[in-house]
Amino acid sequence: MVFGALKNLFKEAGVKNVITLFHAPKSPASIRAQTLLKQTAANAQATATEDQASSHDAQSKTERSEFELDVQEGDPTSDQLTNIFEYLGADKIGSVVEGASTPSEAIRKVKANGDLFKRPVIVDWGNGRAVAGDNESEILALLKKPNNA
User: What is the pTM of this model?
Assistant: First the structure.
């Protein structure tokens, strides 16, 4: 309860949400996801600037929240993987780590061979959401302001 209140306080203070892209620079899908995220971040920033110059009503109507894009080319940590699986659901583990069906198996596989971690994976840590792959509509849905924001 206290954590939620603090989280909302920081959001109200203008702290941007961090969106992490686990990226593979040689993957066309990952490049598409990165391009979409960069464009969306730039558009959100431009919209926020316009809104700040106008009434507060416009601010509450913006579709996308500002976010800081964190691009990671390295493998996620065990804790990050655990969170990603929690956000995606157990049925998506195999879509993120090749040949894995449980979180512990996936973590073990990634530690042994990071190439088994399939990129891109986009994670909204602050709102507990993730997308595996470059599906544009899923990525844009992840970036929309949550209902309780």
Answer: 0.78
